[in-house]
Recover the amino acids of this structure.
């Protein structure tokens, strides 16, 4: 069996590839939903919210990719992963992203991180929570929204 860190790295490599597919306009909602737990939590400067991994989530996924495309995001690339084992079933992973975009025909990028909490159960990794920074403030600062 592959080392859990290798499995987590592969999990996020697939996540990054799925993001590229979504940005390209391809249908990835079902594949995206498969990596989330039946219920998951988001913490951000807006507050804390929870959501079911249901039809509403499946419907929201393509809208997220449409939004990123509409503001000029062209690529989301993982530059670093910091993995912390919390116990034998749970992991905290800080993922450092480089978000490339084009504004007024000028390429640029934003770097940020998201902290994901994963459960490793029955050989499968699932996101059950994540923490984000103030994405909207950065997008406003860059003139993208």
């Amino acid at each position: 069996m592959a080392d859990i860190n290798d499995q987590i790295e592969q999990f996020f490599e697939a996540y990054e590839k799925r993001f590229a597919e979504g940005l390209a306009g391809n249908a990835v909602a079902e594949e995206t939903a498969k990596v989330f737990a039946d219920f998951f939590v988001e913490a951000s400067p807006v507050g804390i919210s929870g959501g079911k991994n249901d039809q509403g989530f499946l419907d929201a996924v393509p809208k997220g990719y449409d939004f990123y495309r509409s503001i000029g995001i062209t690529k989301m690339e993982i530059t670093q992963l910091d993995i912390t084992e919390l116990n034998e079933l749970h992991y905290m992973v800080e993922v450092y992203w480089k978000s490339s975009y084009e504004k007024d025909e000028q390429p640029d990028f934003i770097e940020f991180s998201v902290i994901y909490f994963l459960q490793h159960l029955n050989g499968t990794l699932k996101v059950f929570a994540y923490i984000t920074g103030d994405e909207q403030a950065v997008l406003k600062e860059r003139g993208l929204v």
